[in-house]
Amino acid sequence: MSFDKETANELVPSLQEVTENYYKIKSLLKKTPVISWEGELKDKILGSDAEIFIKLELLQYAGSFKPRGGLTVSQVLSQDEKKNGLVTVSAGNHGISLAYIAKKIGAKATVCLPASANPFRLQKIRELGAETIICEDVHKAFEKAESLKQEKGMFFFHPFEGYGMTLGHGSLALELVEQIPSGFDQIVISVGGGGLCSGVAAGLKQHPLTVGTKIIAVEPEGADALHQSLKVDKTVRLDSRWREIQNLMLTGYYLSPYKISVVSYLRHAGYTPT
User: Fold this and answer.
1) 114 forms bridges with which residues in the sheet?
2) In the chain, is it the N or the C terminus that has fewer CB atoms within a 10 Å radius of its CB?
3) For residues 129 and 117, what is the distance between their CA atoms, to the nearest angstrom?
4) C-alpha dihedral sign at 122, 223, 74, 156
5) CA 148/CA 142 separation, integer angstroms
């Protein structure tokens, strides 16, 4: 069986589910370090009394946080789904993650990328053994991935959407609680599709030590689909004038019902878009 919108449309992972999943995938992850930012620059910008911690997810396997969600989804793939292969859309990091995971579980991976994708990341995907298909833009990349799903029965590994992705990214929240046991007032999270933010928020907002932590999501101008959706409580399709940024962020056109249910939960729990 697989996580999908039919079974998880309105379901936000509980703290117990996030914790149980973390222990399932823990051995497959690096517990990336947290460092303290100190020095004159920090003092000048934020003041000498501010304590700033930075979690170095660039040291995670495959170079980003992406395997947290991807490994979670891969745990529930059937043998037929693995046999038919995995397909996704990515501007880089998710594609690298899927190629890495596919190699781990013995499956074939195909990554559809917009022509604007970073050449370095494209090369990393290929080095890990995945097939790459270059498309005109992210819209065409999603169309190609969908056609491969329909024609070849490949499992579509969404780059950020769905219960499994949110559940897996919640593992980062639990690591932060372990690494900063005194707690923290705020956390700043960059947002592309919103999978990381939704998972971390679900973990922190339900944990007794961090339930009062303010969560600040930061999106680039022109690709702020999560922020715009929060304002009106429904999916927002962004203005195509910002298409180049949206291609890089894979956002704006592909928010689905599960994402909106998570966004609504986060809003109720004190989530603060910026």
Assistant:
1) 135
2) N
3) 18
4) negative
5) 10
Cα torsion 182, 186, 188, 194 to 10°: value is 100
- Kindly compute the dihedral angle of the four CA atoms of residues 160, 161, 163, 168, in this order, to the nearest 10 degrees: 0
- 109-114 vs 52-55, strand pairing mode: unpaired
- Which residue range forms the structural domain that includes residue 26? 22-59+162-273
- Give domain status of residue 15, yes or no: no
To the question of pTM greater than 0.85 for the whole model, the response is: yes
For residue range 122-140, what is the model confidence (pLDDT) as tens digits?
Answer: 999 999 999 999 999 888 9
User: Tell me, what's the pLDDT at 225?
Assistant: 77
Residue 10 lies in a domain: no
Bridge partners of 189? 217
Out of 10-19, 40-49, 181-190, 244-253, which region has the weakest mean confidence (pLDDT)? 244-253
| Per-residue tokens: 173 | 């929240």
Contacts of residue 7, defined as CB under 8 A and 6 or more positions apart, other chains included, come to 163
- Say what percent of the chain tops pLDDT 70: 82
pLDDT tens digit sequence for 190-217: 888 788 988 998 899 999 999 999 999 8
Collapsing DSSP states into helix, strand and coil, what is residue 106?
Answer: coil
In a shared domain, residues 244 and 142? no
In a domain, 3, yes or no: no
Q: Which amino acid does the sequence have at 136?
A: E
